[in-house]
Design brief:
By secondary structure, this protein is an alpha+beta fold. Helix content is about 20%, strand content about 25%. The chain has one domain (about 1-280): q2cbj1_9rhob like domain (Jelly Rolls, Sandwich), CATH 2.60.120.620. The protein is elongated. The mean pLDDT is about 95.
């Protein structure tokens, strides 16, 4: 577990590539991936609400797919990290959208927006997948206000991903700063990033063949650039959590520290009593 603890991420290896590409083919067969995914400009601006356009239970393409081979692939490692009673908080398919698919009004709306989630621009019948066109460095705890960082994100590439296919960018060790507000205090200096004005971080680009699988802590900074090809990058994203006990809930109500470096001062380092005082014996 050393890499996950010290770096905030881990590489799981490669899930069966043939099965991953079969899932990819099934997803691609459900619609015409291209400009036809998008609402007309008139329909977009006539929407009353742009919220809630991402996949959700009952509107999620992964619910129609047999992904048991993915669960079997990551099971032993995830069990080491989260314990044997872990559970999937949420999982979905995500699609990196090529620039040439975007209608002009969409390009204008998302220009320099740090989180280019395209859900509100997509026709309702196709909102069972998350579509994006690049997203700045962020933490996955961003979507869970007031939640403890009790989950990991696991990502599976369903096709080969090169540096031109919107690969994930990740900043190892950024998790050590804990949860911070987006946009983050992150400045690029030459080939490094300065985080919170005091932590120097190096960038890592996650490329690999179909089946490549990584997971990371919910406070590890990561993001992606828009795809530089004419093909979409379709992957699977899992949020996997551990069960919380009544003890965890109880600890949240405790105002003092939950651990001590020195638990007693009534004895010296040789364990000889140096204090003689006992309230229960004072009668």
């Amino acid at each position: 577990m050393n890499n996950f603890i010290t770096k905030g991420y881990d590489y799981l290896g490669t899930a069966p590539a043939d099965k991953c590409k079969n899932i990819l083919s099934q997803i691609k067969s459900t619609r015409n991936f291209g400009p036809d995914l998008f609402l007309s400009e008139t329909d977009f601006y006539s929407q009353k609400d742009r919220y809630g356009t991402n996949p959700r239970p009952g509107r999620n393409i992964v619910e129609t797919l047999d992904l048991n081979f993915i669960s079997e692939f990551y099971h032993s490692r995830v069990k080491e990290v989260l314990g044997p009673e872990y559970f999937i908080l949420f999982h979905k398919a995500v699609c990196g959208v090529p620039h040439e698919w975007l209608p002009k009004y969409v390009r204008k709306e998302i220009d320099m927006v740090p989180v280019a989630n395209l859900g509100a621009f997509i026709k309702p019948e196709y909102r069972d997948i998350t579509y994006f066109h690049g997203i700045d460095y962020h933490q996955d705890i961003i979507d869970y206000k007031d939640r403890l960082t009790d989950f990991i994100t696991l990502y599976v590439y369903l096709d080969d991903v090169t540096e031109n296919d919107a690969p994930l960018f990740l900043l190892p060790e950024s998790h050590k700063a804990g949860a911070t507000t987006f946009p983050h205090d992150l400045v690029k200096v030459n080939d490094k990033y300065i985080y919170n004005q005091n932590q120097e971080l190096s960038e890592m680009v996650l490329t690999g063949p179909a089946g490549t699988t990584y997971f990371w802590h919910s406070t590890t900074l990561h993001g992606t650039q828009p795809t530089k090809t004419s093909s979409p990058r379709i992957s699977l994203r899992y949020l996997i959590s551990k069960h919380r006990s009544e003890l965890d809930l109880c600890n949240e109500f405790i105002e003092g520290p939950l651990k001590l470096s020195n638990t007693r001062i009534d004895v010296n380092d040789k364990h000889i009593p140096v204090i003689k005082h006992n309230l229960l014996k004072t009668i």
